[in-house]
Amino acid sequence: MKKVLTGNYAVAEAVKMARTEFIAAYPITPQTTIVERLAEMVEKGELNADFVRVESEHSALAAVYGASAGGLRAFTATSSHGLLYMYEMCWWVANSRLPVVMALVTRTIGPPWNIHTDHTDLLTLRDSGWILAMSENAQEAFDLTLIGFKVAEQIDLPFAVGLDGFQVSHTAEVVDIPEQSEIDEFLPERRRDKPFVIEPRNPITVGGLTTNECAMILRQEMDRDMEKVGDLVRNAGYVRDYDLVERYRLDDAEYVVVMMGAWCGDAKDAIDVLRDEGVQIGMLRLRFVRPFPAEEIAKLDCKKILVVERDCSIGKGGIIATEVKSVANSPVQSVMAGLGGVDVGVDDFVSMFRRFVKGELGEWWL
Amino acid sequence: MECMIAKPSKGSAGKTGLWRTFKPIYDENKCNNCLLCWLYCPENAIDVVDGKISIDYDYCKGCGVCAKICAKKAIEMVREEEL
Amino acid sequence: MVVVKIKDLPKEKFLLPGNTSCQGCPHALGLKSLGMALGDDVVLVVPAGCTTIIAGSKDKSSFKFPCLHVPFASAPAVATGLGSAFRRLGKRGIPVVWMGDGGSDIGFATLSGACVRKDDMIVIVSDNEAYMNTGIQTSGTTFWKAKTTTSPTGKREEKKDLALIMLMHKADYVATASVGYLQDFIGKLRKASEIDGFRFIHLHSPCPPGWGFDSSETVEMARLAVKCGAWILWEFDGKFKISSISKPYADKSKRTPLAEYLKKQRRFRHLSDEDIAEIERRIDEQWRVVLALEEVF
Question: Which of C66, C84, C112 lies at the smallest CB-CB distance from A199?
Fold first, then answer.
């Protein structure tokens, strides 16, 4: 069935259809409408879940952690400062191997206060052990939320679904919603004893002091399991096929743009413009940052690669570019643009890509 | 993940009786079986066997709470090297 | 309150001997009492603190309870999630948050949130009046004038009265307790377990290394605090009541001289007679408040 939904409402719909049992979240713009909608669904009896109105994001993920450790399918959502406030819990959840799903509506980190999108907040989770997906539109936000539960519960790693603040979160689009029966078949009830369950009369202690080797083995196991996520996503058995990347006009591309998120739509329009001019250019869109699609990037056979990203690791530059450079077999150029939600439209991309092709592009686009 | 899970076990810190400087010596004849020493032993190293107390010296750290709480002075703390 | 008889207490141990607690540890007394009171209904949630260490290491747990270790400020919120799981999955059990005064300082908002929501749990703050696990630093509940490693000339601020704060937070059950009176504590835990919602017990836990007294004197020190009136045992279960153990000390003439309690502790050795008189004045003030609450609450 097709419905017109904003990205945030699409995520809420997916959480409902996943038969999520526990939700705890604290409002923050532009995430708020996800939990408002979920609260409404619970109150109306459309979703049989416990909805906890916590007093902070730290407590939101702490409550979700407890519920997940107790065996429930659990969800939270946040943005920017909310993510930073719950950051400690993000690592605790990951190291505990709990299959929590979180929607992360990307927003610039202040000061100055700014509610618009960039991707710095999402990328703070890069090393934590969360599977990190970034959607381009409401449909993907919906689909990746459902795939998130499935994959997280298969591999026992938490899953964050990124969606750009306002550009996806508050933009209404047509979303193709599968039947509930299709979702139920795709996503059965969570296995409650995996990776462990905290319950009365089962006297295990989890997370206490142990050997240094245990801490290291844990991270090693997480890293190895993260490598399996690509296959799990490709073979998820969802109603639509998904991969870690999307390939756009790549087959004969001499110039390849690597990007992620909502603005890829505008960038694809710009690619079409350059294609009409005879420039052999295409896009490899990252749908996942973790696991990092290293093979897909290594396979790119082109004159040069341009990474366009809305983030900066101060002192090193573009985070994604740094990672792409580590695996690419073609020269990589980095450009940082759109931080703080600075608008970058089709015309900007046309101009940017032309300069890239000519070798006249600087490191910052402002 | 398994290495992050622990199960109930006596002596998680080893034989903590080795920590002891003073040893509680119990005189059954003075004891009125009030069980206060059993209740207040912080280590949980005192057992009640057939209504009488029994100190588990493998784990008793020799804190001396039992001797202090005993109204009948049925437990005396004696320096280990004097034993 | 139902009288708890020693001989009727269960013999099964939920705190296992041979753990890393210090000699004469008050938390150990509290934890063993928790097992005696509620047995295998308990699911422990433990934030950072001494109890993180006492809980065991490697594959050995010191508890016969299930126990989830959690970040410092998160414990009551984690218990909220666990409680939801137990209820939804039809499992009988009580999430019990066991934390120190450090956990209740750094996690005060978390404590407040869980209480406001009346989430199903028992929270026990085992208060040894300083951050002991990191080496005796001042906490919100450190006693006025007590020396710690971060207040080497004595704390300048008042002790935070957590239990009264939680009472005003409309918790479903609030009590103060002491490791000097374990039967009273066990009785209060059992009472708490019969009430639904958010239940809070502030447990006074004198710490031998932290306060500077001999390990044999933990129970005695806890009792002296009650007998000199500095720690008042009370309970709110819908009605505010001063517990029978503390009742006589409403009468100032029945109280043990305050100096007997203070002078036994290294942290108070520097106190002048004027300081002791000032503490006495503050204790009188506390009694005035508690007696008034018994009238009106």
Answer: C66
